[in-house]
Design a protein that fits this description.
Largest sheet: 7 strands, mixed
Bound molecules: NADP nicotinamide-adenine-dinucleotide phosphate
Structural class: alpha/beta
Radius of gyration: 22 Å
Strand content: 15-25%
Number of helices: 6
Helix content: 10-25%
Length: 352
C-alpha cells in the first residue's frame, strides 16, 4: 500500500521490505514495482547521492544512459548536515543550507529519468565487463560504476570519545545543536567546517569555544572575519582534547596545551551538569568496501584518478571527496561527477 498523488507527484510504492522508495514522474523515478533489479544491466550505477553522485546522475541521465543512483542514507552526504553554503556558484546568493541545495540537485537529476535505490552495498565486483554490486537484499549489475561515496567525520581521537558519542560528543551541528540550547559547547578543529559550524552553534549555545591545535585558523579568511566578530565565540589556541568523561553524560574534559604540555580539566557548570563537544577535524573516505577488489587506493583509502576520473579499473570512475584531490568542495565534487558520467558514456560507446 502506498500514497498515490497527482501526475508529477511522488508515488510511494511499498515493496516487500525492499526499495520502498521507488520513483515516478519528474520528481522521483521509482524502480518500477516488480521490476527485477537483479537481471537488469544498467549503463551506469552511481554509488552515493552527494553533489558528485547527483551531478554524475544528471549528466548520465541527460545522455539517455540507463542510470541508477544508490544511496544508503539521506541524499547530500556531508552537505546534508551543512547549515550554510556560500560559495557554490549559482546558489541562492543570500546563503543557502545544504539540504536546500541538494534537494534541487536531486530533482534536477531525477528529471532526466535516473532511477534511485536506497540500499547499503556491502560487496562489489568491479573487474569484468559487467560490474556487480551486492547488498543484503539485492544484486545490481552495470557496465560502469561511478564511485561517489564521499567521506565521513574523522574522530577526535581522545579517550572516552566512543563512549560519549551521542551523550555529548557529536560531529553534526545541524543534527544536534538544539540539544545544547543555552549550554556551553566546545568545537574541535580550525578549518572551514569547524568555524562555520561553531558559528551555527552560537545560535543555540550560551557560549561556544573553538579548540584548535595551532594558534591560527585554517578556515578561509572570509569565514574567520565573521567568526572573530561573533561575541559568543571564544578560542582556545594550541590545544588538543586528551579525554572526555562524565557520569553517563559528558560533563568533563581534559585538554592539553601542545606548547607547554600543561593539562587543564574543564568541568561543566554546576547548574548545567553537561556540555557538548563537536568534532570537525577533517574527514576520512568511505572506501572500506573497495578494499581487496583490485581498486587502487592511497594509504588513507582515497582513490587516485586521472583528470578524467578514471580509476585503475576500466569502466570504474571515482568522483568527489573520495578522490585524491586538493580541494574538497561542492563545486569540485559536482564537476568530478559531470566528468565521470561523460567518460562513462565514452567507455560504453567504445564497448559497442
Ligand atoms: P580541514 O580543512 O581538513 O580542516 C581540519 C581542521 O582540523 C584543521 O584546522 C586541522 O588543524 C584540524 N585537525 C586535523 N586533525 C586534527 C587532530 N588530529 N587533532 C586536532 N585537530 C586536527 O577539514 P574541514 O574543515 O572539514 O574541511 C574539509 C574541506 O571542505 C576543505 O576543503 C574545506 O575548505 C571544505 N569546506 C568548505 C566549506 C565552505 O567553503 N563553506 C565548509 C566546510 C568545508 P591544522 O589546521 O593544524 O591542520
Amino acid at each position: 500500500p502506498g500514497a498515490m498523488g497527482e501526475p508529477g507527484e511522488i508515488y510511494i510504492i511499498s515493496g516487500k521490505g525492499e526499495n520502498v522508495f521507488k520513483y515516478h514522474g519528474n520528481i522521483c523515478n521509482f524502480i518500477k514495482k516488480g521490476e527485477n533489479v537483479m537481471s537488469k544491466v544498467y549503463d551506469v550505477i552511481v554509488l552515493g547521492a552527494g553533489p558528485a553522485g547527483l551531478a554524475a546522475g544528471l549528466y548520465a541521465g541527460r545522455s539517455r544512459l540507463s542510470t541508477l543512483v544508490i544511496e544508503k542514507g539521506k541524499d547530500g552526504g556531508q552537505i546534508a548536515i551543512t547549515d550554510d553554503i556560500e560559495n557554490y556558484p549559482g546558489q541562492i546568493v543570500e546563503g543557502e543550507s545544504g539540504p536546500s541545495l541538494i534537494a534541487r540537485m536531486t530533482q534536477q537529476c531525477e528529471k532526466f529519468g535516473v532511477e534511485r535505490a536506497s540500499d547499503v552495498i556491502n560487496e562489489v565486483h568491479l573487474d569484468g565487463d559487467i560490474k556487480v554490486l551486492k547488498s543484503a537484499k539485492a544484486e545490481y549489475q552495470s557496465k560502469t560504476v561511478i564511485i561517489a561515496t564521499g567521506a565521513f567525520a574523522r574522530p577526535i581521537g581522545c579517550k572516552g570519545e566512543k563512549e560519549f558519542m551521542g551523550k555529548g560528543v557529536s560531529y553534526c551541528a545541524t543534527c544536534d545543536a538544539n540539544f545544547f540550547e543555552d549550554f556551553e559547547v566546545y568545537v574541535v578543529g580550525g578549518g572551514d567546517s569547524a568555524v562555520e559550524e561553531a558559528m551555527y552553534l552560537t545560535k543555540f549555545a550560551r557560549k561556544v569555544t573553538i579548540i584548535h591545535r595551532r594558534d591560527e585558523l585554517r578556515a578561509a579568511k572570509s569565514i574567520q572575519e565573521k567568526a572573530f566578530k561573533n561575541e559568543k565565540l571564544h578560542f582556545m589556541w594550541d590545544t588538543v582534547v586528551e579525554e572526555v568523561g562524565g557520569d553517563g553524560i559528558l560533563s568533563e574534559m581534559t585538554v592539553k596545551n601542545v606548547k607547554t604540555g600543561e593539562l587543564t580539566k574543564i568541568v561543566a557548570d554546576e547548574d548545567d551538569g553537561m556540555f557538548g563537544v563537536f568534532g570537525f577535524i577533517g574527514t576520512l573516505p568511505n572506501s572500506k568496501i573497495y578494499e581487496g577488489t583490485g581498486l587502487e587506493m592511497d594509504e588513507r583509502g582515497y582513490i587516485p584518478t586521472d583528470a578524467d576520473m578514471h580509476t585503475n579499473i576500466p569502466g570504474v570512475f571515482a568522483a568527489g571527496d573520495i578522490r585524491v584531490k586538493s580541494l574538497r568542495q561542492v563545486v569540485t565534487a559536482a564537476a568530478d561527477g559531470a566528468i565521470a558520467a561523460t567518460q562513462a558514456e565514452k567507455y560504453i560507446n567504445e564497448l559497442k
